[in-house]
Amino acid sequence: MSALRAACWVLCCLLAAALPSWAGASDFEFHAPAKADDPTTPAIMRDLAQRILPVYQEQDPDRYLANLSALQMVLGDYTSAYASRQSLRNRRRIADLGRRVGRAVIFDIYAHAKAMEAEQPVPFAEAFTQAFGDVVPQLDDEDAYAVTRWLATSLPVFQDALQKAFDQRRLKDSISGPDAMDLIWTYLGFDAYRTFGTLVDKLDAEDDQRRYTTDGGVRVATADGASIAVHIVRPKNPAKPLPTLLEFTIYDADDYAKECAAHGYVGVVAHTRGTQAKPRDVVPYQYDGEDARAVIEWIAKQPWSDGQVGMYGDGYSGFTAWAAAKRLPAALKAIATSAATAPGIDAPMSGGIPHNSAYRWSLYATDPRPSPEADFYNDAPWRALDRTWYRSGWRYRDLGRLNGVQSPIFTRWLNHPSYDGYWRKMIPYRDDFARIDIPVLTLTGYYAGSQAGALYYYQQHLRYNPKADHTLVIGPYDDSVMPHGPLAMLQKYPVDPAALIEPRELRYQWFDHVLKGAAAPPLLQDRVNYEVMGTDAWQHAASLSAMAPGSLRFYLDRNGAGDKHRLVRRKPLHTSIVRQTVSLTDRSDFAWTAPADFISTNLTTHDGVMFLSEPLAAPTEFSGLFSGRLDFSVNKMDVDLYVSLYELLPNGDYIYLFNPTYEFRASYLGDRTQRQLLKAGERQHLSFQSERMTSRLLQAGSRLVMVLGVVKRPDREINYGTGEDVSEESIADGSEPIKIRWYGGSYIDIPVRQ
Asked: What pTM does this model have?
């Protein structure tokens, strides 16, 4: 998902820049090779290009020249291909004036190198070095960084794309003209990158030497005697001291220090104390806020610093930005976060329910080995552990014992199930938010697991500081949107083209605005900037509540067909009770996993009850946080619940309006700092506002679907409802199943714009 997905995104963008459709309508006989790297593949693709070229038509001259060059390259006529690309560049010279370099420059460099190899002749490595040197050193730092990043895309990405294209045509014996041109470009990407891929690293390093000063191995001392490893990349010979962009991270993976330098900043990456020690000796969360402050104060004293520091981060480094802001260092002028972890809020638990992934991550974070990533990213043994624990019925605290590896930090987290002082000292809490008066940019997604944490920071900041300069960007994204970019197809859900922004570029534009006085990015027109799924458009609002001026209330009604009950607009006049029973000892569902796709033809509930509305009479925009009130009785003193919402299209497809599901422990719903047990056997009420939001235009004729259920799954702590410490409960406490009565007084409120 990490490097591969990032490279896939670059591939899609790269080919999209050069994949114009073809106006011709002819079909061509074509039999796909067995493998992308099959020895017969070049000849088969040359044959296809040879048959396309005489009949290729396109009214747009730019598209014609781009596709013509691709056909010529596949045919091996690189001299003509380079001439075609030169003609295209000449045509685009005025139109592209002032624009950033485009991805098509990769094929300019490649065609030039192959033409030199054929004409002079010279070895390809020498020709490519010269072609690279004719282009990249003349670019500014930002464009050069973009080109070298595109050039560094890994070959398997292109090979996999070509193999997938061949596999899709396996049972066909012909190909349409537009599809044939798409295939030509896909093959050309693979053929080009396997030709020059091994040359890129050396050329990139030489170009970096000309542009940047890199300081590795720097150590910054902290007040308590520790030292923080710091990596610095600076533009060479700047006219004046520069602002600094700092990431403070627990990970050893590639960083963005050079990217920051390419955008005109000093790029600094600092590492959580102990991550660079041998052996590693790391305690997550505990020291990062103070250590980040020490690094910020050190940066401000350096001769290359103009005294301004902006922090950015994704996941853990998003947390450290907030942890530093809590300490109010004077030089910290702005923070920009994506998927920011909020300890005690969305990790190691969410909605008060601990996740097994926290145990897995705790072992990774505290592993003494220098590079434990291989074990962490291999899902199979962790999924097996989930299932083994689930079937065993052991206490949640026994997860480590069952795995044969105890995690002291995970045990410590389980000792703090409430949002108590242990968690509150890590990130801003209440009045801490009131004192944070620097600009903040938050980016998250409707399908991001970290959305709850991101919205917590956003809402709490504005609650305690109503005048806070805090901007939210949210769209149809998952947690990896910032490092890897948005996907046009997200878990089978087609993302609107308007949502396919470049989030890191947006972040640099925002920092330019805040730290350098540049204009604000056009996308950021208000505090809340959100893409309305299904409209291909962004909207802007002053607050979350202002996203939708109205609401629709739906009550739970027992009537319906089969196991599908009704969502009705009026409170049922009759006594409406939906009964639900969930066995706490049945583990036959040990292999169950949450569905991966966000659009499905079949919706199955897991320990849940389904409710459907009548078809909507008109298109209705659902934007914001939904809320509700549960009127129920349960035979337990506590229970873990979930709410999922879907749009059921007229064609029968279910679309997830957000993911993952909204889950919460009932005893912490009203106050996460203090547990309030239920009254077993009594009718009672729970009011809630979701920690997850969405924005989508629901179609006329669609139905709103709600699934309300009990959280009992292999990858979560199981709440047996005794009212005692949940981590100490076991299957021995679950002989009595959970029995719930959902009364017709229960409802949900959906924020809408009609």
From this structure: 0.93
